[in-house]
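Revision sheet: structure tokens.
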Amino acid sequence: MSPQPEEIGAKVKKTSERLNAHLLQQARGSNDLQYLASPVTGGGVQVNRFQQLFLLAQRQGHKQPADWTAATRQLRQSQGQRLLKEGKPNESAEENLAELTQQAETFASSSCRFCGRWGGVALNRTARSARAASS
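Predicted:
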């Protein structure tokens, strides 16, 4: 998908941000929506539920992937949900934590470039700095 003219992107940026904030809240209880709005392209950017929950945690002030993991883990535990690996639920809390941590770290290492390019929900500077320092 190619970018739309900058003046159009600028006009729809606030609307896209409000829509994305709503969609991120929806991800708390549902896996139904797999896209966020991009003011750059005028379309959607695919972002899975865990990525949405990590972005939501970031918007709530959690700055590092470990913080996103903790917030997401707490939400999932309160809902009685476990992660699946190879189609089977992880049995132990340690397995769930390890899988969620891996997903948060993978998202942190790739989302800055991705979200920045398409104008989705950008990764905050603290997380980018932490990721760069660990590289």
